[in-house]
Amino acid sequence: MEEFINQKKAEMLELIEQLVNIDSGSYVKKGVDQIGSILNRKYEELGFVVEVNQEEEYGNNLVIRHKNSIEPKIILLAHMDTVFPEGTVAERPFRIEGKRAYGPGVVDMKSSLVELLYAIKALLHSGSNSGENIEIILNGDEEIGSPSSRALIEERAEGKEYALVMEPARKDGSLVMARRGGGRYTLMVEGKAAHSGIEPEKGRSAIEELAYKIIQLHDLTDHEKGMSVNVGLIEGGTAVNTVSDSAVAHVDVRISEMEQGEYLEEKMKEICATTDVPGTNVVLEGEIGRPPMEHNAQTKSLLHIIKDVGEEIGVKISGTATGGGGDASFTAATGVATVDGLGPVGGNAHSDKEYLEIDTLPERTLLLAMTIDRLSGKE
After folding, report:
1. How far is the C-alpha of 337 from the C-alpha of 143, rounded, in Å?
2. Alpha helices in the chain (DSSP H)
3. Taking the alpha carbons of 268, 274, 280, 283 in that order, is the dihedral positive or negative?
4. Residue ranges of the chain that CATH labels 3.30.70.360
5. CA separation (Å) from 28 to 36, 83, 88, 135?
6. Contact criterion met (CB below 8 Å) for 232 and 250
7. Residue 318: what are its φ and ψ, rounded to 5°?
């Protein structure tokens, strides 16, 4: 397989260029669907059956299985959307400088989409039937929390033994063993307006009440336990000389264990149940939208297998934790052994400096193909 993959390196880069040069931000449905159409055709050419789950607002989600597949025990996740708005490609299209490739979504995760496709091609070329033991989900809304694809991922994860998630490897090449979960909340305060110069005593400042609440919410943060509460956006008031009658805070919550989410939500509700400024009213809305991917015995066992494969091909594999969320949390929460970060190495994702380490593309493709083979009971 190694020789086959090395021979296909230039071909893989050509496909990466094609995919990168399509705007496919989470809200650019036509671009995400264009990516899906390209990959749909390529998988069908390999003898796979592609089920297209139509979506009205976001990109369509694809479920892919080999035509001979019966009860695959491996699920692979990869997303087709990026964080970049329409028009980004025109400003900075795909380019190669030295040993790195650049462009919007080049490593998160257009290269991973290509790596996955060519790992399967390598398996088929080698005569392995391990491709029949996998089910692939390509979704179009991961970067905004997978609102349309979460239920699909959780449904398809049921009954699987392993989940391999194609987010890029970390800059040092490590795989992801744990991810923080999190949620978004909105805190709305209603006060009473009054002229701040003529009759300020008649007002009830929503902004003042919100200020008290922000301090109390931030006090819930405990970095040592891996949980944090951050008010990242606030708005309120109508004029500088008016006591504000309304204010809103948008809150980001991060957790390392699911129980922490229950604890923080209870504490947040307690904080919002009373007011510090008499005459104001507080409403809290939101939920934990993404469970944490917890580092457990299943994950350790799966990583050990991948490490063994890495040793065989001369790639040193290690595991790490990250604060960012991802779809791996959904498979892990269903009890499936999950490892993330199986894409190629790169860095600066979600920025205009995002890059792919080109030389890691073939080695990570080989690692993925051989891992699928190993998990399928093949040597």
Report:
1. 22
2. 2-7, 9-20, 29-45, 88-91, 111-126, 150-157, 206-218, 258-272, 297-313, 328-333, 360-375
3. positive
4. 181-290
5. 13, 10, 11, 26
6. yes
7. -135, 165
CB within 8 Å of 244: residues ≥ 6 apart = 191, 193, 205, 206, 207, 208, 236, 237, 238
Rounded Cα distance between 324 and 165, Å, is 14
User: 2-180+292-375 is classed in which CATH architecture?
Assistant: 3-Layer(aba) Sandwich (3.40)
Rounded CA separation 347/145 (Å): 21
- CATH 3.40.630.10 range(s) for the chain read 2-180+292-375
Give CA–CA dist 68/21, Å, rounded.
34
CA 237 to chain centre: 35
In the beta sheet, which residues pair with residue 340?
Answer: 176
Cis peptide before 258 (omega within 30 of 0): no
* Strand 194-195 relative to strand 134-139, pairing: unpaired
Cβ–Cβ < 8 Å for 203, 280: no
CATH number for region 181-290: 3.30.70.360
Instruction: Report the C-alpha gap between 378 and 305 in whole angstroms.
Output: 13
What pLDDT tens digit does each residue of the chain (379 aa) get? Answer: 999 999 999 999 999 999 999 999 999 999 999 999 999 999 999 999 999 999 999 999 999 999 999 999 999 999 999 999 999 999 999 999 999 999 999 999 999 999 999 999 999 999 999 999 999 999 999 999 999 999 999 999 999 999 999 999 999 999 999 999 999 999 999 999 999 999 999 999 999 999 999 999 999 999 999 999 999 999 999 999 999 999 999 999 999 999 999 999 999 999 999 999 999 999 999 999 889 998 889 999 999 999 999 999 999 999 998 888 899 999 999 999 999 999 999 999 999 999 999 999 999 999 999 999 999 985 4
Determine the Cα–Cα distance for residues 322 and 79; give it in Å rounded to an integer: 18
Strand, helix or coil at 178? strand
**In a 3-state reduction of DSSP, which class is residue 100?**
strand
What is the rounded CA–CA span in Å between residue 320 and residue 299?
A: 11
